[in-house]
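Translate structure to sequence.
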């Protein structure tokens, strides 16, 4: 019972809530780089850069509450970063101990710190420019409290009232005088964030080698890592290697490091899919000529975890862009046109990293959700787009690939060469501007037959099907091709919205009142990877026209979908005689249609045609076989 009591002890603030050891530790770990920079700037520059680095780290690491009950001296108004009392407590301790060290004639810790300690190396931050040097000289001329006031103002962006309270609680005799003294140095907040004052991004040099030889015959280690704060020690030669376009590393932990280690990437055997219980991205092998390029893979992982400001990041709606929780699976690494491309999979998302062949400037990172993708939906990924064309990476179970124009259902598909799973380029409708006279799609042949996929500007092409919702068939068949042909151009409305698949259902055919033939009613429904954001389009094509027209649309509705395969839509149509008609049609289960509003009419069956004035608006309602009532898409 006594040990449990000790483990649960808390440190209570002087004018605020209690701060537990766990809470303070979490704040220290999260904001470690900032706290070490704060301590480094408050410590007297006379210590020397190397000693300031080690002392700053030691002060922060010893700032946690002790295993005894005591009250902190945090002013109530300094509620830490975003109101976190744990951070406020740790910051208060860092300022207090840094000022105490500065007050000593020979500044050092009252107890020699166990960590960090480095043997045989001199560690110091990277050198800055003339502005940083001038600021460091000005700060060295200030007293410890004044230096702390300046840093708390510029680095923490605290008001003077809060700074005054922190200084008083840290033991400064005259906080007001410290603020006045700090006013003598012009505010240069941006310089306080310079690498010159970053004790977490370090350079290493050896100590006096001759003296070391005199004291020991064994050669000590030529270099040792100071693994603190999550930033790499910058050793001559680049340390672990450059991260390219990635942002600075702020925190490290075993799981995060494992996810960033190219040596821990999951690689699947080429034939694993043949005996796997499921066919999805998890059984794709790693392909491409650069799967052994550890530097490229490291850059891709680092940028995924922390993309820099120059990296172009895109994601389909509903897709998270954070780093992987563990080592992801490598699907591809190789040259694609003028770029080096890496494709990774973490079980829920596909991440594609692309960089120019001549450097990392202009790198791009794209994400797409693929949770639940199996079989056909996991048959292809977009490798890259250039010059109006798109290249795909196909699944290992794909036997052949071809391209075809969706608007020419009777034309034979053109074979598409595939090398190591990578297709030759084909024209992408997602990159086209202007009129729509063709719509090229990718036809893949797999174990279950032919299937169609279309590029809608995302990493995963949309799967095309045709038929009644709930029982669709592949659009590659003759019926599906003819159903899609007049309505292919409507796919342009679904670009870059996270579409998983699109189904076309020819739900009705209606004889026109002027005897000119029959009009075709089709409902196309786009399902998304995130579930919401679905779109159902009612389209109508009259005889003689090659393309249909969208006459009604429903967003986030069940109509025309597997949960409710019902649809009702209408359109104002002008006959050859000049008369205007309201044409309405429903699915096979509709037994009656009623029009109200600008037109009052009713009819039995799934079709309705009545004369109407130009510009007339009407509300439609239909009755189903089971007695339910449905409204028309608008």
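Result:
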């Amino acid at each position: 019972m006594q040990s449990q009591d000790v483990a649960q002890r808390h440190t209570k603030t002087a004018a605020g809530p209690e701060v537990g050891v766990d809470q303070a530790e979490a704040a220290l770990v999260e904001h470690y780089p900032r706290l070490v920079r704060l301590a480094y700037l408050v410590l007297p520059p006379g210590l020397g850069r190397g000693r300031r680095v080690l002392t700053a780290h030691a002060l922060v690491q010893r700032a946690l509450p002790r295993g005894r009950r005591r009250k902190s001296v945090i002013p109530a108004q300094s509620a830490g970063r975003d109101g976190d009392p744990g951070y406020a407590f740790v910051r208060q301790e860092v300022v207090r101990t840094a000022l105490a060290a500065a007050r000593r004639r020979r500044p050092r810790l009252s107890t020699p710190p166990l960590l960090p300690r480095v043997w045989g190396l001199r560690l110091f931050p990277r050198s800055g420019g003339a502005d940083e040097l001038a600021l460091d000289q000005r700060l060295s001329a200030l007293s410890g409290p004044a230096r702390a006031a300046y840093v708390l103002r510029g680095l923490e962006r605290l008001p003077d009232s809060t700074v005054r309270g922190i200084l008083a609680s840290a033991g400064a005799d005259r906080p007001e005088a410290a603020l006045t003294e700090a006013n003598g140095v012009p505010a240069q907040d941006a310089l306080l964030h310079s690498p010159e004052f970053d004790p977490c991004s370090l350079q290493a040099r050896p100590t006096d080698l001759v003296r070391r030889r005199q004291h020991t015959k064994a050669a000590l280690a030529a270099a040792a890592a100071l693994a603190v704060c999550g930033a790499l020690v910058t050793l001559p030669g680049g340390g672990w290697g450059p991260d390219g376009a990635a942002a600075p590393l702020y925190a490290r932990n075993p799981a995060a490091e494992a996810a960033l280690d190219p040596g821990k990437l999951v690689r699947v055997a080429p034939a694993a899919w043949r005996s796997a219980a499921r066919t999805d991205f998890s059984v794709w092998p790693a392909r491409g000529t650069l799967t052994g390029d550890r530097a490229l893979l490291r850059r891709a992982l680092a940028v995924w975890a922390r993309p820099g400001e120059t990296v172009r990041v895109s994601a389909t709606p509903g897709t998270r862009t954070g780093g992987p929780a563990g080592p992801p699976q490598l699907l591809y690494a190789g040259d694609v046109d003028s770029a080096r491309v890496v494709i990774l999979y973490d079980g829920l998302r596909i991440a594609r990293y692309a960089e120019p062949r001549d450097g990392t400037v202009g790198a791009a990172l794209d994400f797409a959700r693929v949770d639940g993708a199996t079989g056909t939906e996991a048959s292809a990924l977009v490798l890259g787009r250039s010059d109006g064309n798109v290249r795909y990476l196909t699944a290992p179970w794909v036997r052949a690939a071809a391209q075809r124009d969706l608007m020419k259902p009777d034309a034979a598909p053109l074979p598409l060469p595939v090398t190591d799973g990578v297709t030759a380029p084909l024209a992408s409708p997602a990159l086209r501007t202007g009129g729509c006279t063709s719509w090229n799609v990718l036809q893949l042949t797999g174990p279950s037959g032919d299937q169609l996929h279309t590029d809608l500007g995302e990493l995963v092409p949309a799967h095309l099907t045709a038929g009644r919702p709930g029982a669709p068939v592949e659009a590659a068949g003759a019926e599906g091709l003819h159903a899609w042909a007049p309505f292919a151009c409507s796919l342009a409305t679904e670009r870059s919205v996270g579409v998983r698949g699109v189904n076309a259902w020819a739900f009705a055919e209606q004889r026109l009142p002027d005897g000119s033939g029959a009009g075709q009613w089709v409902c196309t429904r786009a399902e998304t990877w995130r579930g919401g954001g679905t779109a159902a389009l009612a389209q109508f094509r009259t005889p003689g026209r090659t393309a249909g027209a969208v006459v009604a649309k429903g967003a986030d509705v069940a109509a025309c979908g597997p949960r409710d395969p019902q649809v009702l839509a209408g359109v104002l149509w002008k006959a050859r005689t000049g008369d205007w008609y309201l044409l309405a049609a429903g699915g096979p289960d509709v037994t009656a249609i009623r029009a109200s509003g600008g037109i009052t009419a009713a009819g039995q069956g799934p079709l309705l045609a009545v004369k109407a004035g130009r510009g007339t608006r009407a509300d439609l309602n239909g009755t189903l076989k089971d007695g339910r009532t449905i409204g028309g898409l608008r």
